[in-house]
Every structure is written in C-alpha cells, then in structure tokens.
Task: structure prediction
Amino acid sequence: MQIAICLYGFGNVGREFVRLLNRKAPYLKSRHGLEPRVVSIVTRKGGIRAESGIDCPVLVNLANAGTLSDQEGFVGGDPSDLDAWLPPMREGDVRVLVDATWSDLDTGEPALSRLKDAARRGCHLVTLNKAPLVADFDGMAQVARESGVCLKFSGAAAAGLPAIDTVRVSLAGAQVDSIEGVLNSTTNYILTAMSDDGLSYEEALRRSRAMGLAETQPERDVSGIDTACKILILANAAMGARKRLGDVKVTGITEVTSREIAYWAVQGRTLRLIGRAVRTADDVSIEVKPTPVPYKDFLAQVTGDSKGVRFTTDVFGELTIVGGSGGPSAAASSALKDLINLAKAVGGEQGHIS
Amino acid sequence: MQIAICLYGFGNVGREFVRLLNRKAPYLKSRHGLEPRVVSIVTRKGGIRAESGIDCPVLVNLANAGTLSDQEGFVGGDPSDLDAWLPPMREGDVRVLVDATWSDLDTGEPALSRLKDAARRGCHLVTLNKAPLVADFDGMAQVARESGVCLKFSGAAAAGLPAIDTVRVSLAGAQVDSIEGVLNSTTNYILTAMSDDGLSYEEALRRSRAMGLAETQPERDVSGIDTACKILILANAAMGARKRLGDVKVTGITEVTSREIAYWAVQGRTLRLIGRAVRTADDVSIEVKPTPVPYKDFLAQVTGDSKGVRFTTDVFGELTIVGGSGGPSAAASSALKDLINLAKAVGGEQGHIS
Result:
C-alpha cells in the first residue's frame, strides 16, 4: 500500500518520526506491505514538498539539519493552504496528514481547522498534537466519521503508553467504568524526588529542570493541566464523556509539602498526581489531584519517565498498563504505529492472525 | 453486519459466551453494528442447530441447563462433519467458528483438523482452545492466511490479559525483543501462599484446590506446562519464534521449598513462576522456571488470579500489562472481543476514531 504523508511540524518529534520512517522502511515493506513516502513537511512559514516523495537521504539530512526554512527547497506559504501542501489525490494512494505541531489548548487552533479541512478532503489524520482533541474532540470525531477517514491519536495522550489502543481493541466489547492514571512525567519525577530523597518542592522542580525533564512550560505540568488534557482525551474517547477542559476539576502539585508527603508515608502511601475519570449514574466526572496511593498499588510503582493507567471495566475487571517512557522517540513511534493500524483499517485487513 | 456463529464446546466458557452474547446484544448492535446469531452448538456427540439462529431465550435456557445432549433439539452426529454444523454460506453473512473445547496438547486434535477445515471453507476462527496453537501455530496461521480468513486467539493465552492484542496493535511497528510473564493463576497462588502465609508446597496446593483455583488437572499448572503453552503461543505469535512445546525448557514449582522462598525473601525477592522468551542473535529461546523477582518489580505485584506480562521492544521500551482475572467470564469476554475486532477487520473499518 502506497501512503502519501503530509507532515506538519518539524520539531524534535517530527524529525524523529522522519528518521524512524526511514529506518523502518524495509520492515514496513516486508512485514506490513507499506510504502510510506513523505510528500511535504510544513512549518509555520512554509515547507518543503515533492509530489513523488522527498528522497530518503534528503529526508534524513533535513531531520539532522537546522531550521527547515534555511534548507534547500524550502518555499514560503501559508500552512493552512491545504491545496499547496496536501498530497494530490492519486489512484491507489492513501493520504495521511501527520500533525506534530503545538496549538492553543482553548481553541485547538491553528491545527483544529486544518485537520477538519484535511479530513473533509478525504485525508486520514494522525495527530500527536493534543490541543485539537482537547478543544473539540466530538467535532473532530464527527468530521472524521462523516468524511469516512480515520482519526488516530495514540501519541496525543501519554505517548508510548497505549491507552487508546487498549480501550479500542483490547477492551472491545467492555464498558469502561473508570480510568485513573499517572500521566505526566515531570510531576511524577518531582513527587518521587520529594518522597525518596526528601527534597522540597522547589528543589525537586529545579532538579527536574536540570535533567531536562520539565518542558519549556513547566506550568502546564505542575499545575496539572497537562494531566487534565490527557485524562480528558481518554475519558472522551473511551467513555463517551463529551467533556471539555473546563469540566475537569484540576489541582496541581505546587502546594504539596514535604510534611504532607511524610504524613502519608507513615500511612504506607505515596503521593501521585492522578488523573481520574469515573462513570456515575448518567455522567462521567473527571478530576486531577495529588492522591495518596498505597505502596503496593501499581500506580505507586510508576517511576522515572514511565506512565501508568488503570481501567476498570464490566467484563474484564481491572487492567493496568505501565510503560511509555516519554520523549520524542515514543511519540514518533506512536505516530508510526497509528500509520500501520490506519493502513490495516483502510485496507480491510483480511486473513490476519492475532 | 450479520455474524453466524458455530460454537464448539459447551462447558463453563461456552455457556458464559452465550450468556454474554445475549446480554451484550443491544450494545453490539448500537455500538458496533453487529448482529451475531448462534447457528449451532456442537459437543462431542452432536449438537443443536437452527439455520436462522437459535432463539435467545432458548440459548439462555441451554446455557443454564444440564448436559446439552439431554436438551430438546439435540441431534446426534460427528462433530468433525462440518457440513452438518457450519453455518451455510449466505449473502452478507460473516461466518465464525468459536472453539471452546479442549484438545490434546501434542497433536492439537481433534480441534486442529476441524479448524483448518473450517478456514478452508471460508469460515473465520476464534479459538479459546490453546492446543491447536501449541501443536501447530504456523500451520494454523498459514491455512488462515491462504484462505483469507481471520484467526483470533486472544483468549487462548492468558485469557483476559490482552497480550496478543497489545503486540499486534499497541506495539505495531516495534520489534519485540523479550516477553516475560506470570501466566498461570494456580501456581502464582501457591507461591504467594507459601511466601506470605508460610505454608508448605503441599499445604498451599491443598488450599488452592479447596478454593477451586487449581484445575481438574493441576499437573498441567504445577509442572509449568500450562505456562509453557502460553509463553510458546506468545513467542510464536509476537516474535515469529517458530517453536514447539518440546523446544521450551520447563521447570515447574513442585520442587520449590519454604526454605528457598525464605532465602530469597532475605534478598528482597519473591519467587514467581515466570515464562520467558528472549530474542537472541538469530533465534528465540523460551524457558519456564521459578524465578526470584525483586519486590519492586511489577511481576512481583501480580497477585490473586491476575496475570502479568512485560514486553521489551526496540522503540517503545518496556511495556507491562497486568490484569485478566481468570475464569470463564474473562475467557468468554475475550472471545467476544475477538468477534468484534474480527468484524472490524473483515468490514474494512472506515472512519474510525482511536
């Protein structure tokens, strides 16, 4: 299957995705019969394109080079002008827009409009960008459904931790009654350092920055907003919650004290920033807050930059998954996974064994 | 989508599957657009059939009644005579054979020949029976592939724990370098009771029997053979291992002593019966043996009738899943899940959101 890819965003994740595509090309061909080619890479002020696909050596050079706009072949243009950047319709091609940009969490823009527009043009979507899903999950899902395209976003909520796949496939047929998870690495690192090494909040935050863990905007992490976005996406996708960010009750970790941690330690508990969505009689309630978790609980064991999530279901009981070490590699691998599963879905996978 | 089901085996799992189908019917229709009907139920000496589907109330009555052959409508016949039992080809029907029988682990028979035969007739396969997969995984996969039918078996290796789904979907694009897991409830219960309650092996085995945990043939559990079957299926399916049961080095728990457990406890470790498959330079080695696991390891935390498995991969790092409380309900739910995912694959799911 020929896959024509339009890649939006060329930061660490976009670059890693291109490297991965290149490195896995023989495997994708032999194992999955897939021949992806990157037709365009688009950043804020324009991009690089080649209808027959940007040559592999060129792609890898681009991934390892500086700012895209300084590279040979870059042409200026409005990234929202899809006529300019989307792969043209071609017999036998499956067209996919991969979004590795950042957008505003309140509006989802500029990605939201662009993704919907691409879907209406019959282009499948893989988004690593959580903002459009946070801002308008139902709208995105509806446009994708009406347009008959796939919308894949396993890298948008706790990249690398296969939370969405698990619900859709592994728990197919079950009703998800609750989801709770440790979904943000920075806050988990800080709480662990406060607990294990006796650091104050400020010291632990400083250390997480020194280690390059805290993102450029650590406020999103420590305020609990990042966790809120992730549990919101999971609840909307897996529990049909139809909630918005404003519906999530959010308490971050900025007020957590060493004394509080010591208090819980005596009770055999450790403090974790937990995002939790629970089905009630006729609704779903979503909350993020520092929560004392018994040491023996799996979520207490989630350390380093791993993440963990536990589902409670009607027919499968509890299922816990832990993994998804963060970083650009996990996110890029999630996008590749989405591409493979999307191709299977589009191709109407016959004779498959699993 | 109309799904015509031929169910082989009507023990606890088969009965639970029928109940579940009935209970989930409205959900299957509204959420997945699926209308499954059970066309035949086959046991050792014959079965019950109705081309238009056995009526729901009748089905539920059968599930709650005694031996099938004593029920109204039972007709004698050879279960291997597929002409008699498979749903007839009908425009728009997807035909599925669900196997909930037991077979011989060495030969896979009588299920193996029957399943292959059904595949060649264009019937999709869902097997909860691990024997045909243990005896001839490659043969089963090849026949399914050549016949263009799906072969689903998520309930055949650690039912309820979505190990196979995880590899196929959540880890798509990744190379699995190792799989290690706690895959058998009985042995895990015995080792936990020896460790936590200071019981001897014999006392712990007796207690597991009293609790109804140990199966009718506890030898398969305590000898490690059940774990060997499961890790073998996982290694063949997820790592392309192409191994047979004889290739698995198996040590059970019958020789484990209280003294050994106490020795490891002092070292901060607990004994678990671990099935492990590891990719080597040009092969995969598979082993089952009691293994001291650090208390902080996720696999040490797998208790009760849960199971746990950890995958190590090239691009996603480690991923651990814990869950899948055993019993007929988990196995039946796995078969239902397979049915849903099979229908999606056959239908060429378009416009799907995940």
The mean pLDDT of chain B is 92. Chain B touches chain A through 66 residues (CB under 8 Å).
